[in-house]
Specification:
about 300 residues, alpha/beta, eight-stranded mixed β-sheet, about 50% helix
Length: about 300
């Protein structure tokens, strides 16, 4: 299989949200010819200023692309984008490659792979680990499942958007690994929230408490960046609470299928869900605010 390098393949990108738009921008900067589509055309405008072409619909995008990438919200949207008479598979040529980057269930990844294989289309699940700043800087971690030869061929694309990438096994292995990773992300954030509130309740200075925590070995790099924002009460969305909630549901469904008890994850999901009902678009780190409210800790800092 030939390398999927710039000047050799035309890319199509579906889904220009917080992550997708930044990944697409990285691909343009690396010299790829890129056609884009999102239900909200306004999201494509910054990319069009950098030579991206806006497709009218998924069908038009699929007709023109050698490689289709997508970064979408959930299983239902992914299946709708690819399957059916108006989906990408209806127009994609045999030999087309799909790099599907959404966080969905491993079952959906395998289903998509099997549908595509019957049409001569090769789908690889390439789950993303990393925040919007990492997407902007091209330092994501990619978790791939599918054809090993395709994984090798796709490395020029991966190099444009990621610092590291791993082939985990057959179709669905990438999305399985993403659920493993996000288990630690979500439960870890809940553990930090409880630890911080314990310290606050016992009289420790909140600013100093958060500063010291950020210097300890027990806080993961993914959480360190949250601590400075939490100190300012800045819960603006980098990784939305609603998406963490969706991922918790995927994780717990996967655990149920495998008969794996996950009591800490279940508890973290409950706190996440309780804060989500407030209806605000906040970062998943807002569970700390929830714990402060539940325990009656008063926070006087404002967002700066």
């Amino acid at each position: 299989m030939k390398l999927l390098a710039a000047q050799q393949v035309k890319l199509g990108f579906i889904g220009l949200g917080n992550m997708g738009s930044r990944i697409a921008q990285r691909l343009l900067a690396r010299g790829y010819e890129l056609t884009v589509f999102d239900r909200d055309n306004s999201r494509a405008r910054p990319l069009m200023l950098n030579s991206a072409v806006l497709a009218n619909n998924v069908i038009d995008l699929a007709r023109s692309a050698d490689v289709i990438l997508s970064c979408l919200t959930d299983d239902e949207v992914v299946q709708k984008v690819y399957a059916g008479p108006e989906g990408a598979f209806a127009a994609a040529r045999p030999g087309t490659v799909v790099l599907e980057m959404s966080t969905i269930s491993p079952e959906s990844s395998r289903e998509l792979h099997n549908k595509a294989a019957k049409l001569g289309i090769d789908v690889m699940d390439v789950a993303i680990s990393g925040s919007t700043p990492a997407a902007e800087q091209g330092t994501l971690t990619l978790l791939a499942g599918g054809n090993a030869e395709l994984f090798q061929a796709a490395q020029p694309i991966f190099d444009a958007i990621a610092r590291q990438y791993f082939h985990l096994g057959p179709a669905g292995a990438g999305t399985t690994m993403k659920l493993v990773v996000n288990t630690l992300l979500g439960v870890g954030m809940q553990a930090i929230a409880e630890a911080v509130v314990l310290g606050e309740s016992a009289g420790l200075d909140r600013t100093l408490l958060l500063k010291v925590l950020s210097q300890t070995a027990v806080v993961a790099p993914a959480h360190v960046g949250k601590l400075a924002r939490i100190e300012r009460n800045d819960y603006s969305s980098q990784f939305p609470l609603r998406l963490m909630n969706k991922d918790f549901q995927l994780i717990l469904k996967a655990a149920a299928r495998e008969n794996v008890p996950m009591p800490a994850t279940e508890a973290s999901f409950r706190v996440n869900a309780a804060h989500l009902v407030l209806g605000e678009e906040q970062d998943f780190s807002a569970v700390l605010r929830r714990m402060e409210e539940v325990t009656g800790v008063e926070v006087t800092h404002s967002v700066r």
